């Protein structure tokens, strides 16, 4: 894969015009980027609500016009799982999201039965990271644990994936998880460097793993398989933190 140029991030959206998890092949529970070159956009009043969804082949064919009409701003799209599985709807979903001016992001579902570097290579060779895209995401949850795993070794392997993807794409990935999984498997202070996409449903405020106590969350998956009126019936609902800049690749 040819080396991509370093993206320029940090675009604050002042007017809304366009908010790691669907169940993977093996899932049974759900469990600011710091690019090399940064340009700060002029300060503007952030929107109160930045809504998104995350999708995969489980949603079938997505009607992107209806998603747009439902005031969705961004979509995360499952790209890969492990070292060999490519979501069959990934490419189509990415094209559809961009055609309707939705910010698009790609995520990888991590499994412990495959080498982390092979998984990272597979992911970066599958996605076409560029303009209009949000930072890539690593989905870490119970469904990705195969057999007995030592938490220390797991963290070392996950960091290998994160470092490879950052070097290849020039942007820090975001970590998707929940507080239970994070407090068990993501205890290294090195994870503080990464933004958090937290999953927790049916609460007014999500609980983050201890490592992110000071940093807080970037995205909150606040409901699982919720309905969007006038759109597809089964998608995950995501809220972008209004206290943070809404970030996409731009030139």
Automatic annotation (TrEMBL):
InterPro entries: GH (IPR017853), Glyco_hydro_25 (IPR002053), Glyco_hydro_fam25_subgr (IPR018077). PROSITE patterns: GLYCOSYL_HYDROL_F25_2, PROKAR_LIPOPROTEIN. GO terms for molecular function: lysozyme activity. One of its GO terms (biological process) is cell wall macromolecule catabolic process. Gene3D superfamilies: Glycosidases. Belongs to the glycosyl hydrolase 25 family. Keywords: Glycosidase, Hydrolase. It comes from the Bacteria. It comes from Algoriphagus machipongonensis. The keyword Repeat does not apply. This is Glycosyl hydrolase, family 25. The keyword Hydrolase applies. SUPFAM superfamilies: (Trans)glycosidases. Coiled coil: none annotated.
């Amino acid at each position: 894969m040819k080396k991509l140029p370093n993206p320029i991030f940090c675009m604050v959206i002042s007017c809304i015009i366009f908010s790691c998890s669907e169940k993977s092949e093996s899932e049974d529970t759900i469990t600011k980027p710091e690019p090399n070159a940064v340009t700060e956009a002029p300060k503007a009043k952030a929107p109160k609500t930045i809504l998104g969804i995350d999708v995969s082949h489980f949603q079938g064919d997505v009607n992107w016009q209806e998603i747009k009409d439902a005031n969705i701003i961004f979509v995360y799209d499952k790209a890969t799982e492990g070292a060999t599985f490519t979501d069959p709807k990934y490419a189509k979903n990415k094209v559809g999201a961009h055609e309707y001016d939705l910010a698009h992001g790609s995520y990888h579902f991590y499994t412990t039965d495959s080498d982390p570097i092979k998984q990272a290579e597979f992911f970066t060779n599958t996605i076409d990271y560029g303009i209009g895209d949000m930072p890539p995401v690593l989905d870490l949850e119970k469904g990705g644990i195969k057999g007995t795993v030592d938490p220390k070794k797991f963290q070392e392997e996950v960091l290998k994936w994160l470092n490879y993807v950052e070097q290849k794409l020039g942007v820090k990935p975001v970590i998707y998880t929940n507080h239970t999984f994070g407090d068990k498997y993501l205890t290294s202070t090195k994870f503080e460097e990464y933004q958090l996409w937290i999953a927790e449903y049916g609460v007014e405020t999500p609980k983050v793993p201890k490592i992110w106590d000071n940093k807080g969350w970037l995205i909150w998956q606040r409901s699982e398989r919720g309905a969007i009126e006038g759109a597809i019936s089964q998608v995950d609902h995501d809220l972008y933190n209004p206290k943070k800049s809404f970030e996409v690749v731009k030139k």
